[in-house]
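Q: Got a minute? One more chain.
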Amino acid sequence: RRGSIKNRMLPLDFDGPPPAFGAEVLKGELRAGEVLSGRDGSAMALLRIDRIDGDLTVDGRPVRLRKPAWMGEDVLPSSQP
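A: Always. Here it is, folded:
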């Protein structure tokens, strides 16, 4: 995996107030990344590409990955829209 991109800044959507700076994004029990900024309903997070498929949570709350228009299909796992 040397020479390949392992992390990306990606937007997250959620309900309610923003998570705290540095809050962990989890995929089950595994750390998928951390929140770097946010406001009501959305945040930016630095996420591991290999852990962005499936259900993600922050502080026990579900979050939804929002795929940016500039991101190619080859970056996200096939289960992401």
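A: Strands lie at 7-13, 24-27, 30-39, 42-48, 56-58, 61-65.
Q: Perfect, thanks.
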